[in-house]
Write a structure and sequence with these properties.
The protein is mainly beta and 84 residues long. It has one helix and six strands.
């Protein structure tokens, strides 16, 4: 709702916001907002479907702590996060 208010005040419509939003904390936790589903899961790589492609989290001992329809929390030794 906050975003809709900002867009309205700026008189902007039909804008693709920067989704998904990825927050990396100390290379040990990744918060992902705006994914469209889980594509692949292993201790070395977790892939999410995003609006225009795939978001890949690569590392070691990866664990999926929480997942909902659009948000996820991944922990482990994060080596990289990339859009494919």
């Amino acid at each position: 709702m906050f975003i809709n208010e900002i867009l309205s005040r700026l008189q902007l419509q039909n804008i693709d916001l920067l989704i998904p939003k990825v927050t990396l904390l100390a290379r040990e936790i990744v918060l992902i907002e705006g994914h469209k589903g889980l594509l692949h899961f292993s201790p070395l790589e977790i892939k999410f479907r995003i609006k225009k492609g795939t978001l890949s989290v690569v590392g070691e001992d990866l664990r999926l702590h929480e997942i909902s329809a659009s948000e996820a929390v991944v922990s482990g030794h994060i080596a990289k996060v990339e859009y494919v």
